[in-house]
Write a structure and sequence with these properties.
homodimer; alpha/beta; Molybdenum Cofactor Biosythetic Enzyme, Chain A; Molybdopterin biosynthesis moea protein, domain 2; Molybdopterin biosynthesis moeA protein, domain 3; 4 domains; six-stranded mixed sheet; 7 helices; 26 strands; elongated
């Protein structure tokens, strides 16, 4: 019964949705090399140390540090060079007192050596003799075994979103496969007797489907896979059957509702029938996007979006995006870039409601200005022309021209 | 001759690279529905108006505005309801003086009507008669033909990175295919006698390849396709042949150089032989990442990265990322999120050099703090443990503990 639901502020609405969700989508093993932007479902553990052998961080000579303790420019230490540490294999010789081995960055220290003297701190006397002009401390210019990672170290936590350096770090330890959350499959149904496939030529009164594609983009951006379910006529039975069928094959469902009141009520009734607990939120204190429906049906999130493409985008960004990261088990989803800009016009608002105003960013007098993209509420291209959304907080009466405000970039 | 090149500040180095690049990678036509994050190579033009018919933005009654001009709560206007505008087709009846037609949000206005009265401003008397309690202005609650987009309007500029709402906006006009820049293919070669495939078990002195995967992630993030060319021994002929072959099949080439001085020089010599003008920058005033090589060979960018994985990441982020967007013709690439945080420790720097310090972000006393992740320069996991890079500008001596600094999130 939608009448029982009161309009909630956006963060309370999202919290209510989250409390009824299943913990996470199923997991899968994939190649680490292809795991960028995926969310870890198990915490990888180091099975071996990194580095696995003592490694030089400089080009120079592997030495016993104690042989150099009194060395200075005035009174250098003299060492005998007995060979070179090869790249990619262990040195065949060990270092005795008074000896040194040529070593390159990344090379393996020979037995007996505990430091590397930078080549710049030495002087070559003959092919087999060098002067060392500064004392080296034990361990200097050397990475010890396990100094980067020790066997058994947890490398990254469950819920971590994999970045380029994480892929490299895992491969460094031979972890060539990782367990990640599956990409959530999100079914998207467009409804409305007036909506047609964009490939078709509209007749008078018909409009092409927009939300399947803009919401599909939002889904893809949040790590999901958009599954377009097509366009359904404004008919309860047809909508229910299509919704149930698509929900069965998806991890989440989006109904881009017809915009008339009667059709909105139908959407709510259909969602109620898809499973328990059903509709949790019917109305959010945001503009645009107030007639939003948030539901959980058999542990899966279901979204009833306003048909207005601008509202649908705002609602998608506010609710679908965080829900998809949550389904993947990601606790710290990527932040959308937010910047501060000065408003070019006075903007009025109503306390108790969060306003999202489409703005263009303009540089003027070496300052960043946010200029509202005015236009009636149903215009699609106000969104296309905008660089971001300016947010008027829930407790504000509005923002005056010249004031600084947060702009969330698209 | 590398000796002739002086160390350049990062922005000058990038500028020098850009001046020698070919304008753009080839273009291709793809489905708009799959064009998220692609860069437009041709500017799509509207072939039809949006909306294509006068549309109601409200649920209510289509009327002649002049019939309501004197209406008020005290003295309402009385209108005869002659039917309903169907969703998805043109109304079959036109409106005469004193008449009204039921209309839904998104419905088409009948001939003769020039405004819509919201249902909330009316009172139903009988099934065929309503009272209108407020005057409607001509055009009120109506989207006129072409009010959103007019035929011939340029919709988005060349070089625009496609966002979710752009896909929706293009589909609204039946533009189901778009011309975009091909994703640049970036060949990546790892070099070094000590480097092995991560699937293999390292012997003493050997390390697994890291940079192919971390740089591959950077390439993918910037819209490119990483083409791993494998691991090449430190041998001039072998490196040259592999590099030439991979460059022929790629739009850009990355050589992750061995880290010893002799190998770095070999990388530079190989790049010089790949094509004109060859090496443009040999050394950038950044830390880490100073021994970076930027080159253009036969109009294609070629990068010689330091072997140190941390340096390679910094250089990749600073130079490979903007170059890939540039190759796609994108003038306003997505901004990496940058936030301000207070530094937990004093950090020294040298004027004339930009320092990139790996930091973890910590919330303390409801403020955001940036804590440097200390560790020797070649540790891979300092990067994995960090949330971002703190930037010490080129003219600074360092940053004191407690001061605010910019942190570029990974």
């Amino acid at each position: 019964m939608p009448e029982l639901f009161t309009v909630l502020p956006p963060h309370e609405a999202l919290h209510k949705l989250f409390t009824h969700l299943a913990p996470r989508v199923p997991i899968e093993m994939i190649d680490t090399a292809r795991a960028l932007n995926r969310v870890l479902a198990e915490a990888p553990i180091a099975r071996s140390p990194l580095p696995a052998f003592p490694r030089s961080t400089m080009d120079g000579y592997a030495v016993r540090a104690s042989d150099t303790f009194s060395a200075s420019e005035a009174i250098p230490a003299y060492l005998t060079v007995i060979g070179e540490s090869p790249m990619g294999s262990a040195p065949t010789r060990s270092i005795e007192r008074g000896q040194a081995l040529i070593i390159h960055t990344g090379g393996m220290l020979p037995d007996g050596a505990d430091a590397v003297v930078m080549i710049e701190r030495t002087q070559k006397i003959t092919d087999t003799e060098i002067e060392v002009m500064r004392a080296a401390a034990p361990g200097e210019n050397v990475l010890q075994v396990g100094e980067d990672v020790k066997p058994g170290d947890p490398l990254l936590p469950i819920g971590h979103l994999l970045r380029p350096q994480d892929l490299g770090g895992l491969m460094a330890l031979g972890i060539t496969q990782v367990s990640v959350a599956q990409r959530p499959r999100v079914g998207i149904l467009a409804t409305g007797d007036e909506v047609i496939d964009p490939h078709d030529e509209p007749q008078p009164g018909q409009v092409r489907d927009v939300n399947t594609y803009s919401i599909g983009g939002i889904v893809e951006r949040a790590g999901g896979i958009a599954q377009a379910g097509g366009i359904i006529r404004d008919n309860y039975e047809a909508l229910y059957e299509a919704a149930q069928d698509l929900l069965d094959r998806s991890d989440a469902l989006v109904l881009s509702a017809g915009s008339s009141v009667s059709v909105r009520d139908m959407t709510s009734d259909v969602i109620e029938k898809l499973g328990r607990p059903g509709v949790l939120v019917h109305g959010v204190s945001i503009k645009p996007g107030k007639p939003t429906i948030l539901a959980v049906c058999d542990s899966k999130p279901v979204f009833g979006l306003p048909g207005n493409p601008v509202s649908a985008m705002v609602v998608g960004d506010l609710f679908i995006t965080p829900t998809l990261w949550k389904l993947q088990g990601c606790d710290r989803p990527p932040l959308r870039q937010t910047i501060r800009a000065r408003l070019t016009h006075n903007l009025a608002s109503v306390p108790g409601r969060v306003d999202y105003i489409q703005v263009k960013l303009i540089e003027r007098d070496s300052q960043l200005w946010a200029e509202p993209v005015f236009g009636k509420s149903n215009l699609i291209y106000t969104l296309v022309k905008a660089d971001g959304m300016l947010i008027i907080p829930i407790d504000a009466n509005g923002i005056a021209a010249g004031e600084l405000a947060d702009v969330k970039l698209f």
